[in-house]
Amino acid sequence: MSGGPHGTDGTGTDVVIVGGGASGLSLAHHLTRTGRTAVTVVEAPDGPLRPAERTWCYWDEGPGEFDDAVVASWSRLRIHGPDGRVVAADPAPLRYRMLRSASFESLVHSRLARHPRARVVRATAHDVRDGEHGAEVRCTAPDGRGLTLRAGYVFDSRPPRRLPPARTTLLQHFRGWFVRTAAPCFDPRVADLMDFRVPQPRHGLAFGYVLPLAPDRALVEYTEFSRAPLGTAAYEAALRHYTGEVLRLGALSVESAEQGVIPMTDARFPRRVGRAVFRIGAAGGATRPATGYTFAAVQRQSRAVARALGEGGEVVPPPHGRRALAMDAVLLRALDTGRVNGPDFFTGLFRRVPTERLLRFLDGATSPWEEFGIGLRTPVGPMLRTAAEVPFLRRRAATRPGENPL
């Protein structure tokens, strides 16, 4: 790093990745596996810009690249309908897996530290722009000195200041407690993916979510799909009701909590924002609009970027196919208008569609014929009416410019 008020990094690198979350570190991991790419990851220093620890979930088959960071996994899933009836879901050969961000970051950092052409820079990125021979990132180091990083490509995982225009935008917002109960209450083999035995909001839907870690420990969440998040007090009241009145857990202690907001939107997220500047992860459209799941799509996108840089081709291909996005746009609109009842819709899908096929559908890995069959197991009339309406709806800008739910 050279001296002066704004130094220039002179070590040279092929790729700069802005952001050390799931998408940034996943891309760094996949790029360095080839051994040909020099990678610099810019992570925010300790302080308010670093997010709190988070939980990421996904489903996968067989051994995975990040198994050393997996906290728990489940071979059986359950969905509880509003009437209390249970749908037992067998996702075999898939397993539902849970990662904690701290474990994931520690694992990838250790791998990058062993790679001769990878490094992590702690700095606050301010400006990402095209440069004369690629792109550059202007940063401020923790000691206040300026730093400019130059590379052939820059991949920016920071959320945009506002969501792009959309026809429909719902928010998946939640608060979860990591609880320890006085007596064994959980079956560590079974995860409750959706539990609709909670009071439903006037608009949208709500459900509980239970990921057991031991017979007396679990992550218990209250989640809503609606247009606006709640205050912390409202989430706490919903969790007290769910753990006490629905799950009847008895005496428990809350060891930690997490809270978040994920946009579920049919907005078009630009993946290329300059000649050599690209957006990745949720900022590049990796979040599946109808579910809020992101981690698996981030892995597909990261592998595709690494392959494209090695072989040529589209540098950041779309993380989801056109058919998947079109179907998600219809579902979001149907939920937002109230044409379909959310709890009945999701419970019915898990009851009528083999779980492995449904999860592959949510990953965009089903054939058109399989998707047609899944469509027949939804409320066909309301969905067809919505499908006919969606192409004619205007995309509207975000109504609250100052808020960014990403």
UniProtKB/TrEMBL annotation:
Entry-linked InterPro entries: FAD/NAD-bd_sf
Source superkingdom: Bacteria
Pfam families with a match to the protein in the record: Lycopene_cycl
Protein name: Lycopene cyclase
